[in-house]
Design a protein that fits this description.
This protein is mainly alpha-helical. It has helices spanning 3-7, 12-45, 51-103, 139-172, 186-203, 212-225, 229-237, 241-252, 262-283, 288-300, 315-322, 330-346, 376-385, 388-394, 413-421, 438-452, 477-490, 495-501, 506-515, 517-524, 549-559, 563-583, 589-620, 625-635, 676-691, 705-726, 731-736, 739-756, and strands spanning 107-113, 116-121, 646-648, 651-655, 664-668. The longest helix has 53 residues, at 51-103.
């Protein structure tokens, strides 16, 4: 900064700009409130139909979000401008004071342009008036005066240029719309940028020359700033994509002489996560620089890096392991995935995998059981599992599909390839399960995200937002479109084989079935595909999934074959039926009819699931009745899933036994609020869970198929009687209409569906 620019600065224009931004921020705050409390609130409550359900509603939601981002950005800009003005005024005051002190020693400064200046005597002794005594100064005084002026100008320049830099970065975050990056002042924003530039210098080094201390610094700083948008973008764009990949490969490669150095291995493990999250945050920026970075990263995918580390991996081989963590830009993930899957299809040849072979021995993944990280498709699918919108787009139902999917031509090419055509190989480390295919588990995670709208390991009940009815059901017409394809594929004639050969997918398929249990029941209701029961099974979102009557039967008959998926869907079905009975108290003839239909349709679904489970147990353990009975005994324990259920916002979060939030099952409820039926079930299961907490799972009682069906009938009978207890006035009605016989018939009919219409048990 030039000396005169600061000394004679006129801040009136800046003051006017700050005033304008303050007014803008205030107006946008009002608009933000209007958009949230009026525009979006009305949209959420509206009964959208047709194109409005998928296009207009999404536009309204996005617009409301843009108002919030606009307010955030305006407020941040105001704070940065205000803070910068305050600093510059302060430096001008310091400059004036320094010049005044200089005059007292007969010193002054002159601006010589381009940030330079010269110190001179204020009045030369030869030109002083006769008899004038001038202040004396030493050379040391001259140098001190020069240094003080120089230091003030340096700080003012830093304040001015850093403000310009962060404002530019901030605006560039969003090419269209506004950024949600929020900073309290110029210093905090500038600090993020400076930290990023400093840290990027470590990534530019040869990874073999990086010390353990530097690695620790890298991880500590990334962990602290990985979610900051300015930090992440500045950090990423300071290092070329190829260098980022080379650096991580060099640090993570266990064959560089420190394979047994536990401290360094631990730092490498942390780096995979911290670097992955930081790069994900960076991709959310729309700046031209970041877009070029992303394009270069995708282009590097198929090629070898040309390094000695990790057996010279491909770009895909490294980046896919980093993107296992973080929230990545949807478009970047889809472009990356398109390129990866195209390359993979070209090389999908038996015994000639481009990823898992004797040549590629670089282990670049530190997370996940039986997963060395050599197959980049696994890491990419994990990324989709953490990015629901991107996953929904990647597996989107093709345009032109019918009301119900009934042929493979209506299935997304990516989904068909990954579930049916791709050759998947185990990638377990030494001592691991040589038959385990980690990629199947990751495919399940990606499909969970695509169909539920939640990251597969998210806790839907941990959000800070209040539990507004319906706000936690993230399903849309687009997610339903993916679910319809999944149900078609795994409910097809090849479905039983696919489920058993891709067994790590079973829990994910169970979660997906549970997430759409209301739509499955709706498809089961009525006669065939006609006269569906909208009253008993109202749509909880627009564009609900349509599986068709036969499709719902087929899908349930396959889900029932596996112990895990049978248990998860049975628990979701039971909770949904209970919530329907809470939603339809016997206060009107319509409610009574809806309660009846919920009970009978739920019994039909349970019958399909239970009969499928019995058939599969008998088929799998055909020569060992004891093991077959133990398998049924374990399946009969699904009721214990009620322990720890949390209900709110129209959904239930069901924790799988002995697992973390990553195993939560998100299931819809018919009622937005919890009633006596649901509360009674949850309360009872908490008690049972405590009583049986010490049980050894290997010592579970055996259960014959007769006992298994008997237990199923009793559970339905208990539910029916609980409804009568809560609504004693309808006893004459249910006796006259033979509800008990109809419920039992529906349960038995569900079993018969498997024999005549569902999929048979899988035989090796």
């Amino acid at each position: 900064m030039d000396l005169d620019s600061l000394r004679f600065a006129n801040f009136s224009d800046l003051d006017a700009a700050i005033a304008d931004w303050e007014q803008m921020a205030a107006k946008l705050k009002t608009l933000q409130g209007d958009a949230k409390d009026d525009l979006k609130a009305k949209s959420d409550k509206a009964n959208w139909a047709g194109e409005n359900a998928t296009v207009t509603r999404a536009f309204v939601d996005k617009t409301a979000g843009e108002f919030a981002d606009a307010h955030t950005q305006a407020e941040t800009i105001t704070k940065i401008l205000t803070d910068t003005r305050g600093e510059l005024v302060g430096y001008r005051t310091q400059l004036d004071a320094a010049i005044h002190r200089g005059v007292q020693k007969n010193l002054t400064v002159m601006d010589t342009g381009e940030g330079s200046f010269t110190v001179t005597m204020n009045i030369h002794p030869d030109r002083a008036a006769k008899g004038t005594t001038l202040p004396e100064h030493t050379q040391q005084d001259v140098e001190a005066f020069r240094d003080e002026i120089q230091n003030i100008l340096k700080k003012a320049t830093e304040s001015d240029t850093s403000a310009a830099k962060v404002l530019t970065l901030l605006v560039d975050q969003a090419k269209y719309g506004f950024s949600d990056a929020k900073y309290s002042d110029r210093d905090s924003a500038a600090k993020e940028v400076a930290e990023a530039e400093k840290l990027a210098k470590i990534l530019k080094k040869d990874p073999h020359d990086v010390t353990l201390t530097e690695l620790n610094t890298l991880n500590t700083t990334l962990a602290a700033h990985k979610n900051d948008p300015l930090f992440a973008e500045r950090f990423a764009t300071q290092v070329e994509p190829k260098k980022v990949l080379e650096f991580y490969a060099g640090i993570a490669d266990p064959y560089q002489g420190y394979g047994t150095d536990r401290a360094r291995i631990e730092q490498a493990k942390k780096l995979q996560k911290n670097l992955g999250i930081t790069l994900g945050t960076a991709t959310l920026s729309d700046s031209d620089t970041m877009e070029r970075w992303e394009q270069q990263m995708v282009k590097l995918g198929p090629d070898r890096l040309g390094i000695d580390d990790a057996n010279d991996p491909t770009g895909f081989g490294v980046m896919s392991n980093l993107m296992r963590f973080g929230d990545y830009d949807d478009q970047f993930l889809n472009t990356y995935g398109e390129t990866l899957i195209a390359y993979d299809q070209e090389h999908n040849v038996k015994d000639m995998s481009p990823w898992i072979n004797n040549r590629d021995q670089g282990d670049l993944n530190f997370y996940g059981k039986n997963d060395r990280g050599r197959d980049p498709m696994t890491g990419f699918l994990e990324a989709l599992g953490h990015n629901p919108d991107a996953s929904t787009q990647f597996f989107a139902q093709p345009e032109g599909a019918g009301a119900t999917i009934d042929k493979e031509g209506e299935v997304n090419d990516h989904l068909k390839y990954l579930t049916k055509d791709r050759i998947w190989l185990p990638d377990a480390p030494f001592g691991g399960d040589s038959k385990a295919i980690a990629g199947h588990d990751s495919l399940g995670h990606a499909l969970e995200a695509a169909t539920t709208g939640y990251s597969y390991d998210a806790d839907p009940m941990s959000d800070k937002d209040p539990m507004v009815p319906g706000s936690r059901d993230h399903r849309t017409a687009a997610t339903a479109g993916v679910m319809e394809q999944v149900a078609f594929l795994y409910g097809s004639e090849e479905g039983p084989k696919m489920l058993h050969q891709q067994s790590p997918l079973a829990d994910s398929l169970g979660k997906m079935g549970a997430a759409y249990i209301d739509d499955i029941d709706y498809s089961l209701s009525g006669l065939g595909d006609s006269t569906k029961d909208d009253g008993a099974f109202p749509a909880k979102y627009n564009g609900r999934a349509n599986f068709g009557n036969q499709g719902a039967i087929d899908f349930l008959s396959v889900l029932g074959q596996d112990e895990t998926s049978h248990g998860v869907v049975s628990a979701a079905q039971h909770l949904y039926t209970l919530s329907a009975l809470d939603a339809f108290p016997a206060t009107s003839e319509t409610n009574i009819d809806n309660a009846h239909d919920a009970l009978t349709t739920g019994a039909d679904a349970r019958g399909i699931l239970d009969h499928s489970r019995v058939q599969q147990a008998e088929t799998t353990y055909k020569d060992d009745a004891e093991q077959a009975n133990k398998s049924l005994g374990r399946s009969g324990d699904w009721v214990k899933l009620g322990t720890g259920v949390v209900v709110g916002g129209g959904i239930a979060a069901i924790p799988l036994p002995g697992s973390t939030a990553a195993a939560l099952v998100v299931a819809p409820m018919a009622a937005d609020t919890v009633g006596d039926m649901v509360n009674t079930f949850i309360g009872h299961q908490i008690d049972k869970g405590i009583d049986g907490a010490e049980d050894d799972p290997t010592e579970k009682a055996q259960m014959t198929s007769r006992e298994f069906y008997g237990a199923g009938t009793k559970q339905l009978d208990d539910t029916y009687r609980d409804y009568l207890d809560n609504n004693p006035g309808i006893r004459d009605v249910v006796d006259r209409e033979n509800w008990t016989q109809e419920i039992e018939y529906s349960y038995n009919n569900g079993s018969a569906q498997n024999d005549h219409r569902g999929r048979p048990a899988y035989k090796d």
